[in-house]
Amino acid sequence: MSENNNPTTPSTDVDAAHEAGVVAQADRFTDPGVPEHKPRLTDTDPQAAKRAERIVAALFGISALGAIGSLVAYFAFPPGGTAETRLSTLLFGLGMAVSLLGIGIAAVHWAKSLMSAHEYVDDRHPIESSPEVREVAITALNQGVADSGIARRGLLKGALVGAMALFPLTIAVPLISSVGGDWNVDKFRHTLWQRGTRLAYDPNGRLIRAADLTIGSVAHVIPDVPAEERLTHHWITEKAKAVVLLVRMNPDDIRSEQRPGGSYDGIVAYSKICTHVGCPVALYEQQTHHLLCPCHQSTFDIADGAKVVFGPAKRPLPQLPITVDDEGYLVAEDDFDQPIGPSYWERLK
């Protein structure tokens, strides 16, 4: 009775039997080893090997042509207006893509068709190798170089070196050519806004009367300039810095202003350029008075001086001080109270 009531004995016997069965079962399986090597066509047919070599060399040649094409596009189609910049970027990017893709496909085809296809098994060994083992490793590396055929395939070696030498130029040349360019960051301290500049709707340029805005109104705003000036490249560049989001709130909802006296009868105007990385901030939530940047979800409280309440941005949005002129049109009292856009080294506040 005492043996039958002992719950550990049957369990121990079952575990022991199970372990013995697993060991016995494992003993019945042997290491299958490496499967028999099946030679490729390029291993047995010299003509096929030559054909594969020519294909790889051609791919490296295409890569070189792509790199040269991107450099030609960079200098022949310099950025300018919107259309010119789009074309320049497209052609330069296509050249880089062809260059890098040619190198990648050539390397894969070389490895698949010409390099050694034998399977090898390396036994595990201690981390610290003996001098004899290191000598064997060096021998194996040399054997790998020999198997790759790079030493005896001069055409491939030359094509590889040419493609690899030309591709970095697609990155280096634009970087080098930008040295000595326009690095005047003071341009971000000033925009087209100045005292007396009227506010206009973007993009039609219609002037804005304060009386026409109801509480909850939101408008995308640009400086009022002559219609012919809005067609120039200079205007497009300067407009990108001067874009504004205009919001009319109940004056009682304004808890504080980044710039005292910068609003008019509950109407506030802030830069649309996010202070994180410069994305356009334009998603306004009327109930909370929060302004959201769609890129990285930085959130600004318009009722509290556009201060950051969430997200990676570290600075409030610059405020445009506004008032009305004698005809009731909204006008700027001055430029933004601080530089627009993300932070930079020379920025003092």
UniProtKB/TrEMBL annotation:
Record domain Rieske: where = 265-331
Q: How does it sit in the membrane?
A: Multi-pass membrane protein
Superkingdom of this entry's organism? Bacteria
InterPro entries associated with the record: QcrA_N (IPR045603), Rieske_2Fe-2S (IPR017941), Rieske_2Fe-2S_sf (IPR036922), Rieske_Fe-S_prot (IPR014349), Rieske_Fe-S_prot_C (IPR005805)
Task: Answer whether the UniProt record assigns the keyword Translocase to this protein.
Answer: no
Q: Has keyword Transferase?
A: no
Query: What stretches pass through the bilayer?
Result: 55-77, 89-111, 158-177
Entry-linked Gene3D superfamilies: Rieske [2Fe-2S] iron-sulphur domain
Q: Quick one: where is this thing mainly located?
A: membrane
The record's section on Pfam families has: QcrA_N (PF19297), Rieske (PF00355)
State the UniProt keywords alphabetically.
Answer: 2Fe-2S, Cell membrane, Disulfide bond, Electron transport, Iron, Iron-sulfur, Membrane, Metal-binding, Oxidoreductase, Respiratory chain, Transmembrane, Transmembrane helix, Transport
Q: Which CDD domains match?
A: Rieske (cd03467)
- Give compartment(s): Cell membrane
Compositional bias ranges of the Basic and acidic residues kind: 28-47
- Gene Ontology molecular function terms on file: 2 iron, 2 sulfur cluster binding; metal ion binding; monooxygenase activity; oxidoreductase activity, acting on paired donors, with incorporation or reduction of molecular oxygen
- Look up the record and name the cofactor or cofactors this protein needs: [2Fe-2S] cluster
Stretches for region Disordered: 25-47
PANTHER family associated with the record: CYTOCHROME B-C1 COMPLEX SUBUNIT RIESKE, MITOCHONDRIAL
- What's its job? Iron-sulfur subunit of the cytochrome bc1 complex, an essential component of the respiratory electron transport chain required for ATP synthesis. The bc1 complex catalyzes the oxidation of menaquinol and the reduction of cytochrome c in the respiratory chain. The bc1 complex operates through a Q-cycle mechanism that couples electron transfer to generation of the proton gradient that drives ATP synthesis.
Report the family membership: Belongs to the Rieske iron-sulfur protein family.
Q: What is this protein called?
A: Cytochrome bc1 complex Rieske iron-sulfur subunit
